[in-house]
# Entry
Amino acid sequence: MPATPIRVAILVYDEVEVLDACGPFEVFSVATRLVRRRQSSTPDPFEVITISTEPTTTVRARGGLALVADRLLADAPACDVVLVPGGVTDRIESDGRVLDWITRSSGEARVIASVCTGAFPLARAGILDGLTATTHWEDLAELQARYPAVRVMSDTRYLDHGHVATSAGVSAGIDLALHLVARLADGELARATARQMDYPWRPSATPSGQDCQ
# Structure
């Protein structure tokens, strides 16, 4: 278990996919709640903050759900884990502020990760060059065509190279987040979190040779 909370930043923006962002948020928050319940004197394992790319902290997710972020992008602090969810990413892929933040975060964070089409902004920033990566099944061919320096893989829930991780579509972000809980905090905590969420998680080995089973 970490001695101090691991700070996780989740990027949110207009037309972000709800579960892409909120699934991992739920994982990290439930893990923290379980630790508080069982060991109240132990430091929280995670601190989760949401970062808005929009002019205000309120963003409108896909389907119309309003989300209120903790910080604006300009005020984003350094974080241990940076997660870019998918959705309609065209605008943030061409937003220099977002790409600069991703690039800067890749040099500061322990892990920079994507869910679903969140892989596209990471690829645009060059973070995935020379690595295997994955995304939503509908977008695999486009990711490969647009970013030939990335080796795109199908039929996997997530891929973890240590510093960079990607997941397949939507609900696969939950699998990746549980994997990161196991890797960065504690395997038993990850399993307890999945059980608390009533989620049928099956840990899997990754190309970097890490296996949290």
